[in-house]
Structure formats: structure tokens, C-alpha cells
Amino acid sequence: MLYSIQNQFLSVTVADHGAELQSILGPDGTEYLWQGDPSYWKDRAINLFPYVARLTEGVYELDGKQYHMDIHGLAPYRTFRLAAQAPDRLCLELTDTEETYAHYPRHFAFRIHYVLRENTLEITYEVENRDEKTMYFGLGGHPGFRVPLAEGRSFEDYRLRFEETCEPRRIEFTPACFRTGETVPFSLKNGTVLPLRHDLFDEDAIVLEGVSRCVTLEAEGAPHKVTVRFPQMPYLGIWHMPKTDAPYVCLEPWCSLPSKQDDVAVLEGQEDLLRLPTGETYRNRWQITLE
Predict the structure, then answer these.
(1) For the whole model, what pTM was predicted?
(2) How many other CB atoms sit within 10 Å of the CB of residue 185?
(3) Which residues of the chain are under the pLDDT cut of 70?
(4) Which of 100, 146, 197, 198 is exposed most, by the fewest CB atoms within 10 A?
């Protein structure tokens, strides 16, 4: 099922499956969101919970036992229920079931709030621990944006511009897309700009730490741009399908990282995961501004 919210600046559509964004339309009819062409990438803006990216052999350990979990956790594959809706806001909720408990043995509620504030879509992730044990989890966004956003432009006309000068480090990955445990410096032009090229993604995602937590997708002189602000997320993934000319780029704010190559992740011991005691609720707010 699809749900829609709108104001005078934006019209947004969200699916109950995965609580995934389906469309972000500007007042002139510009579609900002990648529309899921399966020849490149069938998804559009998946939500990542309770793990980000890959687990070695699809397996992790919790409470001394091993469990299987698919890439990016539970949320992308489940149907959320409508918890609240108004003309300019929407809340969708996923709660544990017997099926989810078999893969992630915690009782929880995961809510995603979408709120329009002028030309900004505000997204809040809310995790409630309904279990008697501490929750250990990862969290992140994975929205794809069309590139180019304007006719007559090319992918290479666009750049990512960080709001503040920074010296990021790239999280190193193996060819199988698992962490090596190492980081290397990642150069930005003038400390703020990454010009886009398709071959940037030939080795899959670029995952950075130490970046300014506000980044804008833009082309000089072009009428439309996208700004993603992620003040509570320490990592940013940048991606499109490797070794293709895919006409989109994903800007992915993450709270945590994938597992290391050949290591079965022990959730209690993975330092970058979030920890939530019994009865408490965690909230993380990020924003997408469209111009």
C-alpha cells in the first residue's frame, strides 16, 4: 500500500513495504528520488535496521547463539503498519513477530516518521526496546537520487559538496564487501568537493568517516539540488551499482558498519552498534532538503 503526504513545496509517497520512500516531487514536477529501474537497482530508498550491510555468511552471534539475517537487516523485507497520518506527516511502525524473533531475538518497535517542513523532508528513526534484554542494533538510510536532475546535464556534471571542510577517511572493504578493519585518507577537492564519476564505484560503495554531516548533490548552474543532513550519523555511504553508468547516486547516512571479512559478528562486542536498555526509546533525526 502507498501513502502520500504533501505541502506547497513537496509531494512525497511512501510504501508500507519497508516504509520505503517511493517518490519526492517538487512543485514543478521534478522527481528527485531514483525510481528503481531493476536493470541498475530495483530499490529506491531502503531503511536499514537492525544491521547495516553484510554479515559474514549472513550470520551473527547474540546471547551466545547464532542467528541468520539478510543484508541490511529486517526492515527492508517487512510490511510496516500505519501508526499515524496527517496531510504533511506520516508514521509507519514495525514490531517484532514470531518470524522476526527467529532472526533477531528481541521484542521491539521500530517507527519511521516522515514530516514535511517547507522544502525539507525530515525523517526520524525511533526504536523502542520492549525486551527484557539490551538491544544491540545498527541503523541507517539508503536513499537514491536521480543524476542528472536536469535535462541536458550529465552524471559527470554533478558533485558532492560538503558543508564544512573535512579530512575524511575511507573504511576499507574487501572485494566481497566486508570490512578489512583498516581506514585510509580520502581526498576531497579543496577539502569539500567530490566530483562524480561512474568509475568511483567500480569497487562498490565509498564509506567515509570524519566527514561534514551535511552534503549537497549539485551541478554548477543547475536549477535543482539535494542536501542531506545527518547530525547523529557518524558514517556516510556513497554508492551506485558498480561498473555501470547508473543514473543515480545513493547518499547513505549510517550509525554503524558491516562485519569484518570472515568474522562472525558478536553484537554485544561490535563497538559501533547502538545499545538500548530495556524500556528505553532511541531517536535519530536526519533530513533531505530539495531545491
Answers:
(1) 0.96
(2) 9
(3) none
(4) 197
